Amino acid sequence: MYHQELTAKESRTSPMIRAKIGDSLIDLTTLKPQKDLIEKSFDLEPRQLQSAIETGSFEFTEMFDQSKKSPLVVKFSTLGLSENIVALKSKCASKSNSNQ
Asked: Is the dihedral of CA 31, 33, 35, 38 positive or negative?
C-alpha cells in the first residue's frame, strides 16, 4: 500500500505508482480518492513474492503525467526475507488451524 498525506498547501493530481517485482510491472490501484490523502494498493501473489526474494529486491516508481520531473524510484532489498517468510507462513498456518 502507498499512503501519502498532503498538507493544506499541497494539492495535486495523484501520481501513477508502479511496482517492479522481478519481471512483473504492476500499477497500483487508487483506493478512495480524498482531497488530502493519496492511497493506492495492489495484491501481491505468492509467485511475485518468490520472484522478489530470488531477485533480491523490488522497486516502486512514482510518475506524474504532467510533470517534467524525473520519476522517483525507491528500491527495497529483500535480504533476509526468505528466512523470515518461512516463519511467517508457519505462524499463519498454526493460527488458521487453531481457529477451525
From this structure: positive
Higher-pLDDT residue of 82 and 97 is 82
Report which of residues 57 and 99 the model is more confident about.
57
- Tell me if 39 sits within 8 A of 32, measured CB to CB: yes
H helix intervals, the chain: 46-55, 81-98
What predicted TM-score, i.e. pTM, was given to this entire model?
0.68
19 by Cβ neighbours in 10 Å (0-12 / 13-18 / 19+) ranks as buried
Contacts of 3 (CB under 8 A, 6+ apart): 37, 38, 39
Distance separating alpha carbons of residues 21 and 96, to the nearest angstrom? 28
Coil, strand or helix at 95: helix
